[in-house]
Design brief:
Blueprint (H helix, E strand, L loop, with lengths): L2 H28 L35 H9 L3 H8 L39 H4 L7 H9 L1 H4 L13 H13 L29
């Protein structure tokens, strides 16, 4: 093998190395991070959650709160709530005297003691240890985010995130009783503003 052929082989190897290492670097430069600082176009750093606090301001009000749910419940539609409840039918029955499934029958759930339905014996330890009653506020908190409300419970449900849907669902649950529980008091901050009085007609 003469020197000319060796030079051709060496040149081919160098060309291949240049292609392997040079093309990615060129692509990086075209994406705007060839200087080795900062992410390129194909990757975005996670952005901090916007809490509404800008320039030292206070965080924005929570879009979902019991005050807003109480206002929605006051005008909730039980028929629409029954549609929302369909997601619960796999594990719960709503009828009076209905059977228990993976979860307990929910007739009379509003105001009932937590984990105290005598005919249901499969409460998770987390639910059994909660105590108290299923008040409007307790139901709202649990249905909105079951896993965060009672960590360790076994209910595999993502929760109701919309205020109006929650109001409708609670309105439906209220009908599942011999004597519906009184509606919660709507905090003044969540109550709709009264309509402005019409101006008096101008006297001529």
């Amino acid at each position: 093998m003469n020197s000319f052929e060796l030079n051709k082989i060496a040149g081919g190897v160098l060309s291949a190395l240049l292609f392997i290492f040079g093309v990615p670097e060129l692509a990086a430069m075209m994406q705007g991070h060839g200087d080795g600082h900062g992410p390129g176009a194909g990757y975005q750093l996670p952005m901090p959650k916007d809490t509404g606090a800008k320039n030292g301001g206070a965080p924005a009000a929570d879009a979902f709160s019991f005050a807003k749910v109480a206002a929605a419940l006051a005008k909730g539609n039980p028929d629409s709530g029954k549609e929302v409840f369909k997601a619960c039918n796999a594990c719960h029955t709503p009828e009076k005297g209905g059977a228990n499934k993976l979860g307990p029958n929910l007739y009379g759930i509003v105001g009932r003691d937590v984990a105290k339905l005598a005919s249901f014996t499969n409460y998770s330890p987390a639910i059994a240890a909660k105590g108290g009653q299923w008040t409007w506020e307790a139901l709202t908190e649990f249905i909105h985010d079951p896993k965060s409300s009672i960590p360790g419970n076994r209910m595999s449900y993502a929760g109701v995130k919309d205020v109006a849907e929650m109001g409708d669902l609670l309105a439906y649950l209220r009908t599942l009783a011999d004597a519906p529980v009184a509606l919660p008091e709507v905090p003044a901050a969540a109550a709709p503003a009264p309509a402005a009085a019409a101006p008096a007609p101008e006297k001529k």
